[in-house]
């Protein structure tokens, strides 16, 4: 075998070994991030009882084929502004006490409960970003072994990274 072909072959082999070693570090790192997100959501957190200061209804405008607008509802307390559904907002009253569960690591609102009525709500985007998305991502990262350089793995890692940025902001 000529020395030039051997050098090219050796370079390709070394690159594959380095890529595998990097993947052996990167994939567990992102899986660990996903597990931390799941753990943060599942273990619960501190519960605060605060008074409802106001219930806000705002019109969200956008321009597409879906109707161009919708209403969003927020309950404001002294320390938090919590997005809620229309049904939950209609039950809540100003001056009423509300239990708010805040996650341990990322300080996100996991759930809110009206003390007077016992009605409880989990913000659906928090459920998605704190539980469903990380479970999906971790399962892909742990069980996807056939293709090391898969585009799916890269996309999952980027999604976990953006989810982490969202949780930290």
Write up this protein:
The structure is a single chain. The chain is an alpha+beta fold and 169 residues long. It has a domain at 45-123: OB fold (Dihydrolipoamide Acetyltransferase, E2P) (Beta Barrel), CATH 2.40.50. It contains four helices and seven strands; from the N terminus they run αββββαβββαα. It has helices at residues 3-42, 86-91, 124-143, 151-168, and strands at 45-51, 54-61, 69-76, 81-84, 97-103, 109-114, 120-121. The strands form two sheets. Strands 1-5-6-7 form a four-stranded antiparallel sheet, with no helix packed on it. The chain has a three-stranded antiparallel sheet with strand order 2-3-4. Helix 3 (124-143) packs antiparallel against helix 4 (151-168). The mean pLDDT is 84.
Give a quick account of the main beta sheet: strands, pairing sense, barrel closure: 4 strands, antiparallel
Strand order of the largest sheet: 1-5-6-7
Give the number of helices.
4
Q: Which secondary-structure class do the elements indicate?
A: alpha+beta
CATH class call of the domain at 45-123: Mainly Beta
N-C termini distance: 57 Å
Kindly provide the radius of gyration, computed on alpha-carbon positions and rounded to a whole number of angstroms: 23 Å
Shape: elongated
Overall mean confidence score, pLDDT? 84
CATH topology assignment of the domain at 45-123: OB fold (Dihydrolipoamide Acetyltransferase, E2P)
CATH architectural arrangement of the domain at 45-123: Beta Barrel
Poorly predicted residue ranges: none
Beta-strand content: 15-25%
Oligomer: single chain
**Total number of strands:** 7
Order of helices and strands: HEEEEHEEEHH
Q: Helix content range of the residues, please?
A: 40-55%
């Amino acid at each position: 075998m000529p020395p030039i072909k051997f050098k090219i072959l050796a370079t390709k082999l070394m690159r594959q070994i380095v890529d595998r070693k990097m993947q052996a570090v990167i994939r567990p790192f992102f899986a660990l991030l996903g597990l931390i997100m799941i753990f943060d959501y599942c273990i619960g957190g501190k519960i605060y009882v605060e008074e409802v200061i106001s219930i806000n209804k705002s019109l969200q405008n956008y321009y597409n084929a879906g109707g161009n607008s919708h209403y969003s509802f927020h309950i404001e307390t002294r320390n938090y502004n919590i997005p809620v559904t229309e049904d939950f907002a209609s039950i809540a009253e100003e001056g009423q006490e509300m239990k708010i569960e805040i996650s341990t690591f990322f300080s996100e609102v996991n759930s809110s409960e009206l003390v007077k009525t016992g009605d409880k709500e989990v913000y659906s985007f928090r459920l998605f970003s704190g539980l469903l998305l990380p479970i999906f991502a971790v399962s892909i990262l742990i069980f996807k072994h056939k293709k090391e350089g898969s585009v799916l793995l890269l996309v999952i890692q980027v999604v976990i990274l953006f989810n982490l940025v969202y949780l930290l902001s």
